[in-house]
Amino acid sequence: MGSKTRKVAVVGVGFVGASCAYSMVNQSICDEILLIDRTAERAYAQALDLSHCMDFTHTRTKVYAGGYEDCGDADIVVLCAGANPIPGGTRLALLDSSYEIYKTIIPLIMKSGFNGIFVVAANPVDIVTYMVWKLSGLSRGQVIGTGTSIDSSRLKTLLCEFLPVDPRSVQGYVLGEHGDSQFPAWSHVTIGGKPILDILAQHPHRFGHIKLDEIAAKTRNAGWEIMQRKGSTHYGIANAIAHIVRSVLNDDYKITAVSAILEGEYGVNGLCAGVPAILTRRGIAELVELNLTEKEQEQFAYSCSVLRAAAAPLDLK
């Protein structure tokens, strides 16, 4: 990450990639945004459209289209290329198509001399993140998947439909797969620092109607609910990407649930899953190992087994 100009490349500028670039422009996160797409005309049009925002933003962000050879001086490359899940399918069903895309793309990016941070948003994000790590040869801290960042945000939003607080006053994480085997670590969810389990136990007359299992299910299915109604999810995940990019560029040391390569943490080796991580200019500086309950540890192990089984045919060793 030797460039003095804060430069971010976005690969794949469909709904998610374009929304991510739009979020970064409006939040003045970086100085330059390079857009890359298999359809060069679309990348050019998105860059032109975004450049017309500048009169109405706080700072000027240079937005332009280019190719993989232009990634060499980028601080961060955001990977959004990929297909949306089909109705009735799962994110894991996209694995083969994602593998075909990224086994071609990553060597081209690395050939440019890139040595920054990858932020992966393509599904199935946990396996694609691991794939990108293996294909790139970068350190594990330099490859970050969006993972359960969006699921954790959805959890907080859903909880605040029942609790009279702002979602930003809720602390907690969804762990494991960004997919059907994910789960909230309820033992670590707090409202203003107070454990939610204590709040429910102490105030049954006020909050006895809250069913944590139902909230977990709604969190897990939130993406599908959006997909069924409008065909894609992009605003929430775009802001999650922007948050991760900003945290890295600003050296924030902010803790966020992301998909990270596990090397013994939580008793797991050789795969990626959603866990809290400290984000810095170096990428992931450290993983935060929560003291999970026995049930939560079993849920985490199961979620990792789902990911391992799905990734096994790719032989990503």
From TrEMBL:
All residue ranges annotated as the Lactate/malate dehydrogenase N-terminal domain in the record: 7-145
The keyword GTP-binding is assigned to this record: no
Residues annotated as binding substrate: R91, N123, P124, V125, D126, D151, S152, S153, R154, T233
Residues that bind NAD(+): V16, D37, R42, Y68, G82, A83, T104, A121, A122, N123, T146
Keyword NAD carried by entry: yes
GO molecular function: L-lactate dehydrogenase (NAD+) activity
Designated name of the protein: L-lactate dehydrogenase
Active site location: H178
Gene name, Swiss-Prot/TrEMBL: ldh
